[in-house]
């Protein structure tokens, strides 16, 4: 990535509103404005039903806002999606159970018409990156939940996306696995340098991972705060023991109390 | 592995032994109580076994005729069922167009349809194949359609984000996702196809296990053991049809939740 581009905006949301029911009675999201910088790790944090997944789906061109505008890499989300700039990891691994782990990782390459030998090479290196070396020929059901989600991350990175969208990817995992995968995700992200938007309802997870945490208030979802996380990188398990880590977590918790008071 | 195989076969053996014991004691009771024509109502199992052994050649030859036609009809019906399911999966409108008639087709009693088909084609092989196909297509269409429609939202979202077109989404997602459902339909349809073929034979045919069944029924008490042979053989054909289809599923879809392999052979 070229120098100076770190401050450029990768994702811009202006005056975003979303009203599933129509009529404007109980919008899911109201007047959200936020900017995610290029190369930044950003978390969308909030309680269930605050519209954080809704916002993520707008970036992924899976949903259109009822008001406002979303720009991804300077264009409409649709253009970014069709240009292959997006990678997405869902709450469930969403692996195809009839494909081996390797074939799952290769799916985006296959759809893009990448030749077989190149696909194989890429999937091997991706599996190594996420710590699944030697598991390529297994079927998804033969892997643990954490391993499945790692495969899903490898698949999302297959096309070297500029932007990685993650929708509560570790929320179904136990705390130990989740913390381990958080650490691994940071090292994977360090290798790719892509922009990440990570949706979560765990304050500690958001703080540990992110450069910036966008705190959303409960329904209707509004941006309550954008909190900078100045914790040093690279971060690892010891980061969670830092006093500043706990101060940040407590600070964000306070914001929620204010917002719901 | 050996112990696992034994554990799989064990229940079948127990059931077979229990059925045989029940049959034997039932036949014995009828004889003891002096019921008229007891041996024609429920002949001793060994008599049936002897009849089966002595007439194995002709029984198997007729069974083969039935099975061959049932297979042809099954393949025809399965192909029609899958095609119909694909058609209905294209849009809600197409499903609304086709579904009521698919259901209505199952309201026509096969007993009435068989003579009509025979009267039209004047060929028992054709009639057998058509009825077996007719009876097969519905469960295959129904379950394949359910499979095609059961694609998870995340999977669809994934393909959307990957900018995957409709044709490719059928190829990489919907068709493979529908295979377990299709096999559920095939497993239901396979024994039905055999039943359908036999039904045609009961309505009038020259060859087939159903013809022997009817003949030995008419010949009366002296042919009771042979009649039982035909019934058992017909049942065996149905079981074999199911077994072969299930084995095919296990081989072709080792990943499927419904396949025996996934249930029995986890690596972890």
Briefly, what is this?
Chain A is of the alpha/beta class and 261 residues long.
Describe the overall structure.
The complex is a heterodimer of chains A (261) and B (268). Chain A is globular, with a radius of gyration of 18 Å. Chain A has helices at 52-59, 77-82, 101-111, 116-129, 145-156, 175-192, 203-209, 243-260; strands at residues 9-18, 29-37, 41-45, 67-72, 86-89, 163-167, 195-200, 212-217, 222-228. Chain A is of the alpha/beta class and 261 residues long. In chain A, a hairpin with a 4-residue loop joins strand 8 and strand 9 (222-228). Chain B is mainly α and 268 residues long. Chain B has one domain: MetI-like fold. Chain B has helices spanning 2-32, 38-41, 45-54, 56-90, 92-105, 110-121, 124-149, 153-161, 166-202, 209-219, 224-252, 260-264. Chain B is globular, with a radius of gyration of 23 Å. The interface between A and B is medium-sized, with 27 and 26 residues.
SSE inventory with pairings:
The complex is a heterodimer of chains A (261) and B (268).
Chain A: E1 9-18, E2 29-37, E3 41-45, H1 52-59, E4 67-72, H2 77-82, E5 86-89, H3 101-111, H4 116-129, H5 145-156, E6 163-167, H6 175-192, E7 195-200, H7 203-209, E8 212-217, E9 222-228, H8 243-260
Parallel strand pairs in A: 3-7, 3-8, 5-6, 6-7
Antiparallel strand pairs in A: 1-2, 1-4, 8-9
Helix pairs in contact in A: 3-4, 3-5, 7-8
Chain B: H1 2-32, H2 38-41, H3 45-54, H4 56-90, H5 92-105, H6 110-121, H7 124-149, H8 153-161, H9 166-202, H10 209-219, H11 224-252, H12 260-264
Helix pairs in contact in B: 3-11, 4-5, 4-7, 4-9, 4-10, 6-7, 7-9, 9-10, 9-11, 10-11
């Amino acid at each position: 990535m070229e120098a100076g581009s770190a401050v450029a905006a990768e994702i811009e949301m202006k005056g975003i509103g979303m009203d599933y029911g129509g009529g404007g009675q109980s919008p899911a999201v109201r007047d959200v404005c936020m900017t995610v910088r290029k190369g930044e790790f950003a978390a969308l944090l909030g309680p269930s039903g605050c519209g954080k997944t809704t916002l993520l789906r707008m970036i992924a061109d899976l949903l259109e806002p009822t008001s406002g505008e979303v720009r991804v890499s300077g264009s409409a989300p649709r253009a970014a999606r069709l240009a292959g700039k997006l990678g997405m990891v869902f709450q469930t691994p969403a692996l195809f159970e009839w494909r081996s782990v390797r074939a799952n990782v290769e799916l985006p390459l296959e759809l893009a018409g990448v030749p077989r030998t190149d696909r194989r090479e890429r999937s091997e290196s991706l599996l190594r990156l996420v710590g699944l070396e030697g598991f390529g020929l297994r079927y998804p059901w033969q892997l643990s939940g954490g391993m499945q989600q790692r495969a899903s991350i490898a698949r999302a990175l297959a096309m070297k996306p500029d932007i990685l969208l993650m929708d509560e990817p570790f929320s179904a995992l136990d705390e130990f696995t989740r913390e381990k995968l958080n650490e691994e995700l940071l090292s994977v992200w360090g290798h790719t340098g892509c922009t990440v938007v990570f949706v979560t309802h765990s304050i500690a997870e958001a703080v540990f991972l992110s450069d910036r945490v966008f705190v959303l208030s409960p329904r209707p979802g509004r941006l309550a705060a954008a909190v900078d996380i100045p914790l040093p990188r690279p971060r690892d398990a010891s980061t969670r023991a830092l006093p500043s880590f706990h101060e940040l977590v407590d600070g964000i918790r306070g914001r929620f109390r204010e917002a719901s008071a | 592995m050996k112990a696992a195989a034994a554990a799989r076969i064990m229940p079948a053996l127990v059931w077979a032994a229990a059925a045989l014991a029940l049959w034997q004691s039932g036949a014995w009771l009828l004889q003891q109580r002096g019921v008229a024509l007891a041996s024609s109502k429920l002949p001793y199992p060994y008599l049936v076994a002897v009849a089966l052994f002595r007439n194995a050649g002709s029984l198997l030859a007729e069974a083969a005729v039935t099975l061959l036609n049932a297979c042809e009809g099954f393949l025809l019906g399965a192909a029609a069922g899958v095609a119909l399911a694909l058609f209905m999966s294209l849009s809600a409108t197409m499903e609304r167009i086709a579904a009521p008639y698919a259901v209505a087709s199952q309201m026509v009693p096969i007993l009435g349809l068989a003579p009509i088909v025979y009267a039209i084609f004047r060929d028992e092989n054709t009639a057998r194949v058509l009825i077996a196909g007719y009876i097969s297509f519905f469960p295959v269409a129904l379950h394949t359609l359910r499979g095609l429609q059961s694609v998870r939202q995340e999977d669809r979202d994934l393909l959307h984000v990957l900018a995957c077109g409709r044709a490719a989404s059928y190829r990489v997602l919907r068709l493979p996702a529908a295979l377990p459902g299709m096999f559920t339909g095939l497993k239901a349809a396979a024994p039905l196809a055999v039943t359908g073929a036999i039904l045609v034979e009961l309505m009038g045919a020259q060859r087939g296990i159903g013809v022997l069944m009817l003949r030995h029924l008419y010949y009366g008490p002296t042919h009771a053991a042979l009649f039982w042979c035909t019934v058992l053989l017909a049942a065996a054909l149905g079981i074999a049809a199911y077994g072969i289809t299930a084995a095919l599923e296990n081989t072709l879809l080792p990943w499927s939740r419904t396949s025996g392999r996934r249930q029995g052979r986890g690596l972890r």
